[in-house]
Specification:
By secondary structure, the chain is an alpha+beta fold. It contains seven helices and six strands. The strands form two sheets. It has a four-stranded mixed beta sheet, covered by helices on one side. A two-stranded antiparallel ribbon has the order 3-4. A hairpin with a 5-residue loop joins strand 1 and strand 2. Helix 3 packs across helix 6 and helix 5 packs antiparallel against helix 6. It is elongated, with a radius of gyration of 20 Å.
């Protein structure tokens, strides 16, 4: 990662801190909000892993230094006022101390908001983003009994096998001229393809960008 700015361009508050929004580089989900001072920011840039300043303990801390749930930095940017950061990371475990994928797991707006948006053309592919986030959560949290957990625990060979099987099922459904069967099998294929993309740490956005470039 190339540093294209100097720390002098950033505006730290009266306590010498700047808020850092930590975002999953793949799913684009916000994982947590933390604070950095100049030292922790410099260490984050040098090590390509997140370092923060703990306001409660008044000390520097390396995310995952104890738990192993480190965050590898993919990119870092700051806003137009220079007083806030967005850090995109590849998480190596849950971001929250509770063991949750994200610290932002308590909804103020939920199903009601989604229902209001259901007819909006801009949101017709929202389910892909939601599914990508859920798969990312499953990979890190590994809840018992989850099929997605099972796939990640079995590894890439199992995931590849399922992608191949579902692709074959799509072909058979299409040959059968069965719209219902094709709808079902295509859904299975898309799901397993998203699992594969997560395992390979290739964001869906990268695929969409490739498609856009071919347009």
């Amino acid at each position: 990662m190339t540093v294209q700015f100097s720390l002098e361009e950033l505006r730290f508050d009266e306590s010498g801190l700047i808020p850092a929004i930590i975002q999953d580089a793949s799913s684009k989900s916000v994982l947590t909000l933390a604070y950095m001072n100049k030292e922790s920011l410099q260490k984050s840039l040098e090590t390509k892993e997140t370092w923060f300043w703990s306001r409660s303990r008044q000390e520097l801390w390396h995310k995952g230094g104890t738990s192993g749930n480190t965050q590898r930095i993919v990119s870092m940017s700051y806003d137009c006022d220079g007083d806030a950061l967005v850090v995109q990371v590849v998480p190596n475990g849950p971001a929250c101390h509770t063991g949750a994928y994200s610290c932002f797991s308590n909804a103020l707006l939920g199903t009601e908001a989604k229902e209001l948006q259901a007819g909006n053309q801009a949101d017709r592919f929202a389910i892909l983003g939601e599914l990508e986030q859920l798969i990312a959560e499953r990979e890190l949290e590994r809840p018992e009994g989850s099929y997605t957990t099972y796939l990640f625990e079995k590894g890439v060979d199992k995931i590849l096998k399922k992608v191949g099987e579902e692709a074959a099922e799509v072909i058979i459904a299409a040959k059968n001229r069965s719209a219902e069967e094709l709808r079902y099998e295509a859904s299975d294929l898309i799901f397993h393809l998203l699992v594969l993309l997560q395992e390979q740490k290739l964001p869906l956005d990268a695929v969409l960008t490739e498609l856009q470039g071919r347009r």
